[in-house]
Design goal:
Blueprint (H helix, E strand, L loop, with lengths): L5 H6 L4 H9 L4 E4 L9 H9 L7 E8 L2 E8 L3 E2 L1 H7 L5 E3 L2 H8 L17 E4 L8 E7 L2 E5 L1 H8 L2 E3 L2 E2 L1
Parallel strand pairs: 3-6, 6-9
Antiparallel strand pairs: 1-8, 2-3, 2-5, 4-10, 7-8
């Protein structure tokens, strides 16, 4: 069977994130659920819909550290410690990125930003708590779609630094 191009895979229902995982030969499971636009939290909605502990579902946040965009991947059960993120990437100050800049740079929409398959690969920090789990779930690149994979595979594919950047 002929191998599909990235564009063909995306047109047949894949996302840049799943295309990147497939191309890398990384084992993963896709979890789809019906997204409710009224739900107050994308990450908590995903955990509830999939029946997965919120400690195993990670959200992808884009922050501005000293003028450069950085991705933080933290459990949906907690929040991002901006000071710890800045420290993890050797910066001084961090703030949440402008949502439009995050969407433009990653190629994904808010609530569906994946750490994988971004338009422009950004430096990534994976919260250290991820290593406590055999698998974690992250956005697959659109609202209502998650991928489950080993944290080590996510770290390898994104060239992520592991650091304690989440707080409960």
């Amino acid at each position: 069977m002929a191998k599909k191009s990235k564009k063909q895979q995306q047109q047949s229902g894949g996302t840049p994130a799943t295309v990147a995982l497939t191309a890398a030969g990384v084992p993963y499971t896709v979890h789809a659920y019906e997204h409710d636009p009224a739900h107050p939290s994308y990450g908590e909605e995903a955990a509830e819909a999939m029946g997965v502990s919120p400690e195993r579902v990670f959200k992808t946040l884009v922050a501005d550290v000293d003028g450069s965009l950085v991705v933080a991947v933290v459990p949906v059960a907690g929040s991002l410690d901006l000071k710890a993120l800045a420290t993890a990437v050797g910066g001084k100050r961090a703030a949440m990125a402008d949502p439009a800049a995050a969407e433009r740079t990653t190629g994904y929409v808010r609530g569906g930003i994946s750490p994988l398959g971004q338009r422009k690969r950004l430096p990534t920090v994976l919260d250290a708590s991820a290593s406590a789990h055999a698998t974690i779930c992250v956005s697959a690149g659109r609202r209502g779609l998650e991928v489950e994979l080993a944290p080590a595979d996510l770290a390898a594919l994104t060239e992520a630094v592991s650091a304690p950047v989440a707080r409960a």
